[in-house]
Write a structure and sequence with these properties.
The chain is mainly α and 129 residues long. The chain has six helices and two strands; from the N terminus they run H-H-H-H-E-H-H-E. The protein is globular, with a radius of gyration of 17 Å. Keywords: Membrane, Transmembrane, Transmembrane helix.
Length: 129
């Protein structure tokens, strides 16, 4: 991958920190994904400053998630279950707040697409003892 011009590198680093903040929110808020933000943050840091990328990858939980994604190892089965349950709960609990039937149907379809993506497209990592 070619490195961006040096004048853009601070912007990539700043974007990496913003994406990390979203990732932290994702670890705290139910129904809000965290891992995807850390994956994007690592990509931004890699374009801005590899030292920040190395810092992110050295974090105990986050670094493992990003490394597993990059290596194509997928998600542990337990994490897939938790993600799908969170999607179903988030859609179910918020459905009544959407006043238009078409909006409710669209929201259910978005949730269904998320569950299908996680179950069918994201590889399941099976840890062997």
């Amino acid at each position: 991958m070619t490195r961006p011009p040096s004048r853009f590198r601070p912007l990539w680093v700043a974007l990496g920190f913003v994406l990390c903040a979203f990732g932290v929110l994702g670890l705290i808020l139910p129904g809000f994904p965290g891992t995807v933000w850390f994956i994007l943050a690592a990509a931004a840091f890699s374009r801005g400053d590899p030292r920040w990328e190395a810092w992110l990858l050295s974090r105990p939980v986050v670094g493992t998630l990003v490394a597993d994604y990059r290596a194509g190892r997928g998600m542990p089965l337990r994490a897939k279950w938790i993600a799908c349950v969170c999607i179903v709960l988030a859609v179910g609990l918020s459905l009544g707040r959407i006043p238009v039937l078409a909006g409710q149907v669209a929201w259910v379809l978005v949730g269904l697409a998320g569950v299908l993506f996680i179950t069918l497209r994201v590889p399941t990592r099976r840890d062997t003892p």
